[in-house]
Amino acid sequence: MESTPSAAGSAALTLRVEGMDCGGCERKVESALGRVSGIEQVQASSVTGSVKIVPAPKGSPNHETIERTLGELGYRVVNDSQQGQASGPPAPWWHTAKGRLVLVTGGLLVLAFILRAAFPALGQWPFVAATVVGLVPIAQGAWGALKMRNPFTIEMLMSIAALGALAIDAAAEAAVVVFLFAVGELLEGVAASRARRSISALANLAPSTARLIEEQGTREVSAASLTPGQRVMIRPGDRVPCDGRILAGTSDLDESPVNGESVPRARSIDDEVLAGTVNLNAALEVEVTRGAEDNTIARVIRLVEEAQAAKAPVARFIDRFAFYYMPAVVGLAVLMAVVPPLVSTLTWSESIYRALAMLLIACPCALVISTPAAIAAGLSTGARRGLLIKGGAVLEQLGKLRMVALDKTGTLTVGAPRVTDVEAWNDGQDEHDILRLAAAMEQDSSHPIAQAILAHAQDQALTLPRASENRAMAGRGIAACVEGRELSLVPPHHLIDQGGLDADQNARVTAMEEAGKSLAVLVEGERPLGLIAVRDEPRDDAQEGLAALSRLGVQAIMLSGDNARTAQAIGDGLGIEAHGKLMPEDKARHIRDWQAAGKGPVGKVGDGINDAPALASADVGIAMGGGTDVALETADAALLRNRVTGIAELIDLSRATLNNVKTNVALALGLKAIFLITTALGFTGMWIAVMADTGATVLVTLNAMRLLGYRFSPSTVSSSSR
Predict the structure, then answer these.
(1) Can you list the domains of the chain with their CATH numbers?
(2) For 157, 188, 310, 545, which has the most beta carbons within 10 A of its beta carbon?
(3) Which residues are catalytic?
């Protein structure tokens, strides 16, 4: 349990709740606790597995009452010590209560079929036993919600359907329905658990320890204990443990985990550093400016949690429909049993028979299968094509997207700089000479630009000489002796500041930088010999993928943490609107602004930690398959094959699936409506009711299987009309 100040001044209580895994669970919890004395407001989140309770201004809720209320609904409050244990690896699904229920009911169902085949004299009793065992926890949940004056729940619908089937001697059908419901509940729990682990994975960006500088020297302390004003030592290769300001030292920092910058940035005295970034090549002394609870990583975690918890939960179709469907059908069945004998010559036994037949027809077997069958086929088809979609709600929402925001680095671009230009500025040198000498100097460097130069030299099959006396010049590149020549490889702005470039060379540098390229000039003494330009280039299919989105009526916009000039250059080349120099919270803010302006639903595509808040804020978050684990876990869908065309394919597959779902629902409800009428009039009986339900199930399943033949053509985007 945690307590935080609320807007009203009372201490808001946050409880960790086990077993709350869906939007329906959230509504039950909020409805039940909202009636508890002393509670003003309740906000439940199945994503974070928590319930936030704001006490009334003049009262305070009783903790025992809260825990008892949640217990009656089938949920358990996890205390601090249990939460600490839960932070480790989660238990496998078969060790959970829902997993054990699936195993038991599934085993009993199989055993029932075997016993009926081996001992026909047992009749339906094996199926009755299987139904009762599986129905106990479902009925307990329904009873708990009923006591909280919330009768219209999926548990109540399933209880009535199963008991009605038992009453008319359809125990086998009742056992199967109960088992499938238990499987669905288990899958929801597994999905919710994975979502919670994705949030905790963000915390792994910052190291758990830091090297604190004291008068007696340095000592290792917990990074969580750092406070503003303390000093820490960050060695080459270490992750930065805090937000801070450099007091001594100059080094390149890889900031891509936080802001998406594709090229490491040189940082020196008085520059700000961010928790989670990586120090590449020199020791730094840093003053802590923010505590662990307020550093960059902590803020990213809060953004992700808030965005995911604030998402309007997509209620399961059958749960929403049951609000109207269940009372209507039960009411009709009661009327069918009672009214005819009172107003006609129909016997009580016949009217009760017809009522039970109606209740069996109303059993939601075909309806329960209609949507999941199409969703399962769509998800399976997507998986075969490298499109990972995390559930039916996501698949449904994908088809509604009208705007997609894409990250630059690793999404629209390859994700690593490549050499784009090599120029020789001296008559005694050619391009191969410039590349060969520069690559010789970079042979022992792990810097991304150095790796790009070495890769390009390897592609040109150049033989590299050995460099000696290699040394880094603080903030000014590197220097070395190659073939007896004193050479340096430096950023052009140092030469421009010193007047080391002529007018033509200045013009070339300006043109390339405006094109979003990073430059390094090879210098001998004070004479520039040539230039090498690198840039993170667009993916081969980026143009095709953006064109496919346009044909689907979806607007694409680039959001990048890279510098504005580089982002604009890539955006201009691809023909889309581009925004650069964005921190994680800036990307999330853009998403929220577009949603508020009615431009949504809005999707977000990214591959890094820096994209996590925006992925969570978007209506649908899509991760590139080569991205970080946190991006893949936070996102609602992933492109495992790293193809930009996969974004349009996701949307098109969703639209094809939604069309299939509509057809299935019409089939399931249409057949039920027909046979409800014929049964009420006495034209059909129980065996027809069973055939109607089974027949509807077969029809919707066959219709869903058509999705397995789905094909996508990015040049025509015609498959969604299927």
Answers:
(1) 2-88 (3.30.70.100), 207-294 (2.70.150.10), 385-404+541-650 (3.40.50.1000), 418-535 (3.40.1110.10)
(2) 157
(3) 407
